[in-house]
Amino acid sequence: MWNLVDCEKIFIPVHVEKNSCGHYYLYIIHTKNQEVEIWDSLCDQFMDETERNQTTENLLLAVDNLFGNVMFTKFGRRMASNILLQPNGYDCGIFVINYMQQSDHYVTQNTLFQFDSDKERLDLALKLLKSNLNNEKESLYDEAARSYAKAHSEEDLDLCGTKRKGVEDVGRRGTYMELDDSDNTVKRKNVRLKTGICFNLNYIYPF
Predict the structure, then answer these.
(1) Is 98 exposed, middle or buried (0-12, 13-18, 19+ CB in 10 A)?
(2) How far apart are the first and last CA of the chain?
């Protein structure tokens, strides 16, 4: 069906469910040396060997039918070793994506690498946003720029000719903020919190 002469690897992400929970892991089929690698960031914690073997057999049968001229079910199979494992129960998808990107941090264990779920998810969102394949990229940039400009415009109006006071909640103590308009100097003093006073500004910055 398709010509596999120039193909070296086939990446197949798989989602399995068990006891109302789901998990992603990855198959990498090496067409040149006829080997199937299983990359699982939970190793064997989610499914046992029998379940995985049956899933693998069903997958390779489907690939056999898809390509027609290669017997993938005859390929050798092994679990990938010396790869980073997820430190929680919900980042399997992030790990599968990074496995496919073949990042050094994910291919080989690195004791100095510290996985940060929020950072990894943000990095992925930024890659998707900045991709040349993202048809909405320019409109999203424009929307972010408008939000940024609006936030700063509202801030300028708030500061013009006024003194602004706020309390930042830091437990039982707070910080009193006073803006001196003559020299734009912010003075801070520790004060007791007052009921009903809240000071919070959120800004949206463009990427």
Answers:
(1) buried
(2) 43
Token pair for residue 161?
């000719």
0.70 surpassed by pTM:
no
SS3 state at 140: helix
Which amino acid is it at 82? N
Query: Is domain 9-113 given the CATH code 3.10.20.740 in the classification?
Result: no
Residue 31 burial by CB count (10 A; 0-12/13-18/19+): exposed, middle or buried? middle
Contact by Cβ (8 Å): 8, 31: yes
When pLDDT is averaged across residues 183-198 and rounded to a whole number, the result is 37
DSSP label of 133: T
CA distance 24 to 20: 14
* Locus of tokens 């990446």: 11
Q: How far apart are CA 41 and CA 33, in angstroms?
A: 24
More confident residue, 40 or 101: 40
> What are the residue boundaries of the structural domains of the chain, listed by start?
9-113, 148-192
